[in-house]
Design brief:
wza like fold, three-stranded antiparallel beta sheet
């Protein structure tokens, strides 16, 4: 028993390691020494993932171990040598496969290792089972249209947010309206979304300008204080020079016995006091310069923090948009399927007569696409399209109607 568990775990790990990454795969990355890189990343339509500190890495066709080594190599190069950091990469969500045809819930589903046609049909909630005499297609169509409208509204919000964040990072006061939203300017909901994002951008710009103005005021006040202190230093320098001349003359007289010791002591103490005052004022000037530097550093750090926040939010927005577009395409496919679907009760009768369904897998190999005949145990790969044939029912015989209704034809007539 224990040996079987070990073999199963080893097999699962081997499958995950041999898995080749593709568009729409979602991976989780963690590097102990680089916490800013930690997070989940979706592979874009260009086959890249965008990582902070590194930039874009092309990963389509690579294994998880290849991506881990590439991240370690890039970080080692960025750190100018040393031991390469250990990058942990794991799958969060596989890119989808598609299943269409005579199933309950056709559409895109995340791939999982060991997937077969039968499992794919199970994931799609099994074969299509319409109620006899009541297809409920109108309800399905209405639900699909409502879902598409809801997803489209969310997509519009994300597009406006992406435009606003891009403008904020570029330091612009306004953003360019995306073409898809510009075409819908007359829609009140679009106007509300755009006005809301413009208000957020204006608030962020006003905050930045206010902080800069406050810094200029602080610098002006400290500069006035520094100018005043410099004036005091100059005055003390003149007083010190005069005192030193007097003290020099008095010491010369003292060596000849012509000056009193108390007078000499008083003058020396006055000179020491002047020196102390000069040092205190120079210290105050230094502190004023330090205060200006700290204020400038604080403003710079707040600006960097806003940019880091906007960059992170922009990356998340792009990921959400990518996922949302996939969901919208799926819902459109479901709507199309709902509008052309038909009853499939014939499957039970055909199965009872010994007929077995055959399936087709559409698989892309590079730039070419080929169709593969399959059965229920055929393996399914990422990006495959599984076609479950729609079995069109033959006209019902009177005996069939009687069997389905649970009564004889005679009773049905009455």
């Amino acid at each position: 028993m224990a040996l079987n568990v070990v073999l199963m775990l080893a097999s699962t790990a081997a499958v995950a390691d041999e898995y080749r990454l593709g568009v729409s795969d979602r991976v989780k990355i963690k590097v102990q020494e680089w916490p800013d890189l930690a997070g989940e990343y979706t592979i874009t339509a260009d086959g890249d993932i965008s990582l902070p500190q590194i930039g874009n890495i092309h990963v389509v066709g690579e294994r998880l171990s290849d991506l881990s080594r590439e991240i370690s190599k890039q970080l080692q190069r960025r750190a100018s040598g040393g031991e390469p950091p250990i990058a942990a990469v794991e799958m969060v969500q596989y890119r989808p496969f598609s299943i269409v045809g005579d199933v309950q819930r056709p559409g895109d589903y995340p791939y999982r290792p060991g997937l077969t046609v039968l499992k794919a049909i199970s994931i799609a909630s099994g074969y299509y089972r319409p109620e006899f005499g009541l297809l409920r297609l109108d309800r399905d169509i209405a639900l699909a249209k409502g879902q598409i409208r809801e997803l489209s509204l969310k997509q519009n919000r994300l597009l406006a947010r992406q435009a606003r964040l891009t403008a904020a990072l570029a330091g612009n006061n306004d953003f360019t309206v995306p073409p898809s939203l510009a075409e819908q300017r007359d829609d009140p909901s679009i106007s509300v979304i755009l006005d809301s994002e413009r208000a957020v951008l204006a608030l962020e710009n006003d905050t930045s300008r206010s902080e800069k103005a406050a810094l200029e005021n602080i610098k002006t006040l400290y500069q006035r204080e520094i100018d005043s202190l410099n004036g005091q230093v100059q005055a003390l320098a003149g007083e010190r020079e005069t005192t030193e001349v007097q003290l020099k003359q008095l010491r010369a007289l003292s060596t000849k016995g012509l000056a009193l010791a108390p007078t000499l002591f008083t003058l020396e103490r006055a000179l020491a006091q002047i020196v102390n005052e000069q040092m205190a004022i120079e210290t105050a000037i230094t502190k004023a310069h330090e205060s200006v530097a700290l204020a400038e550093q604080g403003l710079h750090e707040r600006s960097l923090e806003r940019k880091r926040k906007d960059t992170q939010e922009l990356r998340e927005t792009k990921d959400q948009l990518s996922e949302l577009r996939t969901r919208i395409r799926t819902e459109v496919d479901l709507l199309t399927e709902a509008e052309i679907s038909a009853p499939a009760e014939a499957r039970a009768r055909l199965a009872a007569r010994g007929q077995q369904s055959t399936f087709t897998i559409i698989r892309r190999d590079g730039q070419t696409t080929r169709e593969i005949a399959a059965d229920e145990m055929t393996s399914v790969l990422p990006d495959d399209i599984v076609k479950v044939p729609v079995i069109h029912p033959e006209p019902y015989a009177p005996s069939d109607v009687a069997n389905l209704s649970g009564s004889s034809p005679a009773k049905a007539d009455r």
